[in-house]
Every structure is written in structure tokens, then in C-alpha cells.
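User: Here's a protein and a ligand (8-iodo-guanine). What would the complex look like?
Assistant: Let me lay out the input and then the predicted complex.
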Amino acid sequence: MSKLYKDPIGTAENAAKELRKITKKEKHDVALVMGSGWISAAEALGIPTHEFSVTDLPGFPAPTVSGHGGKVRSYNLNNSINALVFLGRTHFYEGLGMEPVVHAVRTAVKAGCRAIVLTNACGGINTDYKVGQPVIIKDHISLTAASPLIGADFVDLTDLYSKRLREIVKAEDSTLAEGVYVHWRGPAYETPAEIKMMRTLGADLVGMSTVPEAIAAHALGAEILAISLVTNAAAGVTGEKLNHAEVIAAGKAAADQMGKLLARILPKL
Ligand code: 8IG
């Protein structure tokens, strides 16, 4: 565990404390962050024991996503593991800084979670990828160069996207591809030239989330699994313009399959 991160204002610790109070669960084992397009996939996990607004916990900004965004659910899966599910997340492009972006995963780790599952919708840079395809993230490139860590906190990221967890998922579905994810600040999508640059750098996927959360949770000692859903071809790949409504539709169409996958793997992490 990173020695430098002290949760200086104690908000993650406080949020975990409040979570224990609300759920009456001393400990959660695994956490899931559901990105855009993934929120309805949570239905496959069954009936939660608790659902509440993320703003019921200290330190969370009000959600900007409509629908179920901004809700937190607690599940007891197979009568054995407690899963904490965040429906939606705060993004770096919102301009609130890094603290709110990583608050959910820090809260989860403080609540006892040893594994964190990060999901997102993203653009496909790799031309082999099809819209609606899930891809396991095996590594990342940070083009924001912004870190959630402050100070001389030299965390090793060699196995950031846990090989052990990736193997568990691939054992469940051997057809799943693995790729390198680029974190782009946004909120504007890339230009075609930027996508070409990213492909040259070795990237397969591009999105506006996940990377800060992975780093912050790993620095606190959690194991990370991250899965992207390709909801559009990246700029310049097809010649079509990028359209947010299309992204949402592709997410909805794949949500059922994604939910089933998550339900199968969560108890095994
Ligand atoms: I969904 O093409 C989704 N999120 N940066 N680029 C970036 N983020 C995305 C994209 C995309 N699609």
C-alpha cells in the first residue's frame, strides 16, 4: 500500500463509515464502477439489499448523469460476498480536479474491497474491434498526464490491470479481447490525427475515465479489473461523425450480455 496517501481530509474514511452505517455491513469485498452504457447491466446482479444516492455519503459531488446515475447499490451475492456498485462516476473533464474522480474507489477500498472492477464505454482505435464488443483492459497510456496521487508516491504500475483477475475473466469467456486504453481528458472527442497518433503509440481503446481510478485504488492495495465496451469507432476510423446518442444506444444493446458476464465473474474475484 502507498504510504503517502493519508486521505488528508478523511473523506474516504468517513464515506466508508457512513456506508457501514447505511448498509449495516461491516465490510464490502468487491466494488464495481458502472460507466455510461453499463448502468442497466447492474440489473443482472439481482436485487440489491440497499440502494441510496451517492450524495448520502460524504465527499461526493452531485451526479451529472441522468437516470440511475448517482446511485449506489449494495448486494449480497451467493450469500457470501458483499458487492458495492456505483452507478455512474465523476469524470476528470468535469473540472473538479482528481479528488472527486477517485473518491468512489478510495471509499470502496476503505470499506474493505480488495478487488475493484472498473467499466466504461469507449471508442475503438483498433480496427478489429466491433461496436458492442467488450474488451479487457490490459494496460493504459495516460495522455492527460494527470495523477490522483500527490507527492513522492512512486507506485509501481507494472501489473496495474491484474493478470490474475484478467485470467479469471478469460477463463469465463475465452473470446474476449485485451487491449491498451488511452485516457483522454475530453470532453471533446479526439481529432482523426490524434487517433492516428494513439494507434501509433500502441493504443487500442480511447476513453475519458478509468485510469485515475485504477491508479488510486491500486495505490491503496486493491487489485484492478477493467472492462471497456466499444460503443463507437474512434474519430476518423469510419469517416462517420461521433454521436453521443449512438454511444448510448450501443451501450443499451450490450448491457444484458455485460451484466451476465459481471454476475458470473464477481463471485470469483
Ligand atoms: I463512449 O471515441 C466514448 N468515450 N476520448 N473517445 C473518447 N472517449 C470516448 C469515445 C471516444 N467514445
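Summary: Residues 69 and 120 are 13 Å apart (CA to CA).
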